[in-house]
């Protein structure tokens, strides 16, 4: 029996040592949870080994679980009152808990029990003296980290409200904060590298790898924006981690190859509901993989992807499983033609947002075919819509507007055949319009403005520039209508009919105005500018007066003074129309 007991003890010790060595390797790889689990196994097998407790206490410190770390440190002292490392570890945890008085006390107890010849005795003595001096010099008796007293769910709730950049800075507040933030299972779910355009080169593969590793399998959202320095290595890192629960990826204008996008989608992209690979070399083959694999896909942005063709959406070729897709952006995809609408009617009848600005081959029939998108709220197209199958633009607008009554944003600029009659059919049916962009249309008159004022009660944004048939009277009609106080953005560029009268009325009625564009409005003068900024200066953030040569420099300075540091007045005169 005695021999069998010894054998069991030896086996336990051997297995405990194996767990201990694996835990040290896990700590080197920053796999804290794994290291904690292995050290717990080792302690359960050999509950009298001080190094096991020491390493587990160190791991718990890094995980921000200081109360558990303190429990292990005190257990070390109970096992051996002469173990200097036990007192050093306990004192350190007390210091992390901002309990300097208890740390001093434990150091002094250690000095009375540890042998002077011990190699760490002087270190213990130094820690005690330094802390006592610091404690005595402090004006306040004790500092207190309130975050420590909050339950974990409240700490997460507080910290997750920080912008991503601020969350990263918060790791430098203290070791406690750093350990807690880095080990949180909630805070690294959403990684957003939003930054000014001038810093697009700041994001690289290494940065994405480091932060994605913090999120690990918890990562849900990765927003990178335009990232020209990002390459295939970034997607490879996401696959190796793996971030297989990722739901949103926005990575545009990168140097990632079509093959790697395809491999990414096949391996860890099955849960994606938002994909933005705009300005990339993505091909029909990769799009086919996306549509056949991403069953939860709701938003797809492939704008400026010039390798895509219309056939990428051919129902006869594509095995479409993305039945929830309701937001598609194919802006300026050179090889995608207008007949793609026919394919969308079959594949994605529940479209809510559609951006086809800049694609070729759109006709009156294309607009008419959109009548099936009864849930459509956002539509952007550009250019003339030639007549097809004897269907006039008026008739196409009537059919489209009668069915798409939930439309909130409509953009059709540079369409020279657009008339007041078309706008009438649009605004009478789509009473929920909040944004309207009908710039660069020669045949629109003040009748259009009257219709907008009468029917668009919720309008916030209006782009009506480059329309020579619009005058002061038409603009003032809109300003004085029900939507006038709600208007936030107005663009009247390149319209010589606009005078100071419009600016004065804007100042009187547009109390929510944030941005106005009067580029090349040659009859606007400093008098109108002054009246506008005096009354709208508290809300106005951007006033564009490019090439307004009748606005004197002193009026520009006055406008900049009123708008202050938070507002911008754009003014330049080159003298070329």
Could you explain how this protein is built, in words?
Belongs to the Tonsoku family. α23 links the parallel β14 and β15. 45% of the residues lie in helices and 9% in strands. Strands 1-2-3-4-5-6-7-8-9-10-11-12-13-14-15 form a 15-stranded parallel β-sheet, covered by helices on one side. The chain has helices at residues 2-28, 32-45, 50-62, 66-79, 84-96, 100-113, 121-137, 152-159, 164-170, 175-183, 205-215, 232-240, 258-268, 284-293, 340-347, 364-369, 393-403, 420-429, 446-455, 472-479, 500-509, 526-536, 553-563, and strands at residues 190-192, 221-226, 248-252, 274-276, 299-301, 327-329, 353-355, 378-382, 409-413, 435-437, 461-463, 489-491, 515-517, 542-544, 568-570. With 577 residues, it is α/β, with parallel strands linked by helices. α11 runs parallel beside α12 and α19 packs parallel to α20. The radius of gyration is 33 Å and the shape is elongated.
How many strand segments?
A: 15
Q: Globular, elongated, flat, extended or rod-shaped: what is the shape?
A: elongated
Unreliable spans: none
Q: With helices defined by DSSP (H or I, 4 residues minimum), what is the helix count?
A: 23
Distance between the termini: 104 Å
Query: Could you say which structural class the secondary elements and strand pairing correspond to?
Result: alpha/beta
Helix content: 40-55%
Oligomer: single chain
Query: Mean pLDDT, nearest integer?
Result: 89
Main-sheet strand order equals 1-2-3-4-5-6-7-8-9-10-11-12-13-14-15
Q: How large is the share of residues in beta strands?
A: 5-15%
Radius of gyration: 33 Å
How would a crystallographer describe the biggest sheet? 15 strands, parallel
Protein name: F-box domain-containing protein
Domain F-box: 144-191
Subcellular location: Chromosome
Pfam family, one: LRR_6
């Amino acid at each position: 029996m005695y021999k069998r007991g010894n054998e069991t003890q030896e086996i336990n010790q051997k297995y405990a040592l194996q767990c201990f060595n694996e835990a040290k390797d896990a700590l080197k790889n920053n796999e804290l949870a794994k290291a904690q689990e292995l050290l717990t196994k080792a302690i359960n097998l050999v509950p009298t080994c001080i190094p096991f407790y020491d390493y587990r206490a160190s791991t718990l410190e890094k995980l921000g679980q200081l109360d558990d770390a303190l429990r292990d440190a005190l257990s070390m002292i109970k096992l051996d009152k002469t173990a200097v490392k036990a007192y050093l570890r306990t004192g350190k945890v007390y210091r992390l808990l901002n309990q300097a008085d208890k740390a001093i006390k434990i150091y002094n107890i250690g000095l009375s029990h540890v042998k002077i010849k011990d190699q760490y005795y002087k270190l213990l003595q130094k820690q005690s003296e330094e802390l006592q001096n610091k404690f005595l010099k402090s004006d306040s008796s004790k500092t207190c980290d309130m975050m420590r007293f909050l339950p974990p769910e409240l700490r997460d709730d507080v910290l997750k409200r920080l912008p991503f950049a601020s969350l990263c800075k918060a790791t430098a507040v203290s070791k406690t904060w750093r350990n807690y933030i880095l080990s949180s299972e909630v805070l690294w779910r959403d990684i957003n590298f939003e930054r000014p355009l001038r810093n697009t080169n700041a994001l690289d593969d290494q940065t994405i790898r480091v932060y994605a590793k913090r999120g690990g399998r918890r990562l849900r959202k990765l927003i990178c924006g335009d990232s020209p320095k990002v390459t295939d290595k970034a997607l490879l890192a996401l696959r190796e981690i793996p971030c297989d629960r990722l739901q949103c990826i926005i990575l545009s204008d990168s140097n990632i190859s079509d093959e790697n996008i395809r491999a990414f989608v096949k391996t860890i992209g099955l849960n994606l509901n938002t994909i933005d690979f705009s300005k990339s070399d993505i091909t029909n083959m990769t799009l086919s993989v996306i549509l056949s694999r991403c069953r939860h896909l709701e938003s797809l942005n492939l704008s400026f992807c010039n390798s895509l063709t219309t056939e990428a959406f051919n129902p006869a070729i594509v095995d479409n499983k993305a039945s929830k897709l309701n937001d598609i952006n194919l802006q300026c995809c050179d090889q995608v033609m207008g007949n793609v609408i026919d394919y969308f009617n079959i594949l994605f009848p529940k479209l809510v947002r559609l951006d086809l600005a800049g694609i070729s081959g759109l006709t009156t029939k294309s607009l008419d075919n959109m009548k099936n998108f009864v849930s459509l709220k956002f539509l952007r197209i550009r250019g003339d819509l030639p007549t097809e199958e004897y269907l006039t633009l008026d008739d196409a607008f009537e059919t489209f507007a009668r069915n798409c009554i939930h439309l909130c944003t409509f953009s059709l600029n540079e369409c020279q055949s657009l008339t007041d009659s078309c706008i009438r059919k649009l605004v009478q049916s789509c009473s929920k319009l909040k944004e309207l962009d009908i710039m660069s249309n020669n045949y629109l008159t003040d009748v259009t403005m009257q219709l907008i004022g009468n029917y668009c009660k919720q309008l916030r944004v209006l782009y009506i520039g480059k329309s020579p048939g619009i005058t002061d009277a038409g603009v003032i009609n809109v300003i004085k209508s029900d939507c006038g106080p709600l208007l936030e953005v107005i663009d009247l560029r390149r319209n010589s009919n606009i005078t100071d009268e419009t600016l004065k009325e804007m100042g009187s009625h547009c109390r929510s105005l944030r941005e106005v564009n009067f580029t090349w409005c040659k009859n606007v003068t400093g008098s109108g500018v002054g009246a506008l900024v005096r009354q709208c200066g508290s809300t106005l953030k951007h006033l564009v007066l490019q090439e307004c040569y009748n606005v004197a420099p002193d009026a520009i300075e006055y406008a900049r003074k009123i708008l202050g540091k938070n507002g911008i007045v754009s003014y330049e005169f080159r003298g070329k129309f």
